[in-house]
Write a structure and sequence with these properties.
single chain; 499 residues; mainly alpha; Serine Threonine Protein Phosphatase 5, Tetratricopeptide repeat; two-stranded antiparallel ribbon; two-stranded antiparallel sheet
Length: 499
Amino acid sequence: MRTIINNILICTAIIIFSASCSDEWLELHPSNNMLQNEAIVTVTDARYAINGVYFEIQRSAYYGGNMTYQPDLLGGDMRTWGLSTTRTGDIYRWDFAAGNAPAAIWQQAYAVIRQANNVLAAIDNVEYSSNTLTPAQRAVEDIERDYIKGEALMARAMAHFDICRVYGYPYLKDNGASLGAVIVKEALPRDAKPKRSTVAETYNELIIPDLKNAINLMESRTRANTQGRFTKWSAKLLLSRVYLYMGDWENALREAEECIAGAEASGCALYTNANYTNAWASKHSSESLFEIINLTGQNAGASGVAGHAAAHNASANHEIGITLSFYNHLNEDTDDVRLRLLRRGSIAMFANEFPGFILKYTSGGTTPANSNIILYRLSEAYLNAAEAAARLGNQNDKALQYLNAIVSRANPANSLTGDVTWQNVLEERRKELFGEGHRFFDLLRNGLTVYRENDDLPNVMRLEDRAKVIDWYNFRAVMPIPIMELEMNPNIQPNVWNN
């Protein structure tokens, strides 16, 4: 019955979205423009509409696919397999020019922003579902209205943050002075041609205020996992990540610690060494602070990260795995439980040497596309806290505490002592978060260089020299603004790309 209801809600959300953004509109106007949604009248309508926001997040052009796997394909520890591919190979090889660069993340992030803004434009004026509600029932709908508003604010903040990460240089490179997102807070007229704001402006004027407001509005429900809805704790985790990117170590530590304490008090818990492998095969596991719910007919399909990375189903695409060099690096500690999330394949075209199918997307059973995708996980909060504490210089006890929770969980025989450096934490992030969309950003936001190598294996895609070494001075550290956006809005400043 719940599945039927979910299907109805998603379909209704799609209809609402389609009413506000027709194909013609998307073709003729920049992706950062939007139409006012007049269909949200009651709290129930708002509930349907916020489901539409999650639907847009779920798509293969965003966290169902590109935004999850692209940062790892570019980060040196994962690769596209095979000699040719129509889905991930161009990204992996940087095999495109400014004029034909992939546009998926830009367009889909703004689709999320449009739908979130539709909700925010209407939410304060929605009516009760019935004129006969009791005061208690009205109070329940008031709480739901505020919660929906918090969800929309978090979605809008997340999408602007991702645009800055993909299309703007790291904050610490120039204190946020480079160009970031086109900030969109409300419905824009059809002829609007807004400019991009700087990364710092996008962070300070939208991302941080939206997340703070979302945290307050979602206060009424403190359960760590609300079955596919953002929570106060997922918003705090995202806010701690934002502060890390800014180099605001004190606020990053505070938000991460509050996330850990609050989520664990609400029933969340780190995976143990014993259940680590099986936890990934379960939906709504103990570490999940927010995950995309994928069901039959409601998933990213063949282009999703689950299908690309799967090893347990013969019909999957099998396009993405870890590099041989990273596999060997993990094997330096053969008792590290995270090695169990890799499976060597036996695909003939790779001469039985496929070293790294990823088993983090197996909760769909024999249908990889039905696997849920965890976007905000408790382990990251521990690593954020450890990194921020190490950066502060006077919080080594905390850095040691939070980092050891991850290190000793991976292998109980391991335990750190002495001083913890942020480089120690970054290495542990590399091992813990592979396949979850962090590596490329983790290196560049810290001013480090991405080194990528060709695996010494037969029948695999090769990197040219231009794609092997990237730092935050390299023009490839940011993606080109999609050409059709520049053509439709000449006020959008392009990123400089040397084809």
